Amino acid sequence: MKNGEIWLVDLSDAKGHEQRGERPAIIVGGANGLVIAVPLTSNPTTARFSHTLPISPDAHNGLDVESVALVFQLTSLDRERFVHRIGTLDGQQRVAIMALIRDLMGMD
After folding, report:
1. Can you tell me the distance from the alpha carbon of 82 to that of 11, in angstroms, rounded to the nearest whole number?
2. Rounded Cα gap, residues 19 and 4, in angstroms
3. pLDDT at position 108 over 90
4. CA atoms of 14 and 9, how far apart (whole Å)
5. Measured between alpha carbons, how far is 4 from 38 in angstroms, rounded to an integer?
């Protein structure tokens, strides 16, 4: 698993406002057996929230619908939740995701 890859993940036991079900997620880091990921949704209305990034399907990312990266739901997940790799973000999108993470964390 590498930064910028998009994997299908199993979030079936989520609570409250957390994303749930099997869905794509972008890998942004990891340590100590956990993978840090940004979940995606196909609900376009979520793009109205801060710390989100719309992503269109293309030949590299493996998405089949317009999606929104929910950076504000950045999470650490056990590797067992990752079902399979579906694609990779392009360089500009990776830079944009990392900028949103830095802003979310107050690092800018």
Report:
1. 9
2. 19
3. no
4. 12
5. 10
In CATH, what number does 5-104 get? 2.30.30.110
Longest dimension (CA), the chain: 35
Per-domain residue ranges of the chain: 5-104
Look up residue 56 and give its DSSP letter: -
User: How far is 82 from 8, CA to CA, in rounded Å?
Assistant: 6
pLDDT at 12: 75
d(CA 34, CA 31): 5
SS3 for 8? strand
Q: Where are the beta strands (DSSP E) in the chain?
A: 5-11, 21-31, 34-41, 52-55, 67-70, 75-78, 82-88
CA distance 9 to 37: 10
Q: What is the pLDDT of residues 44-54, one digit of tens each?
A: 999 999 999 99
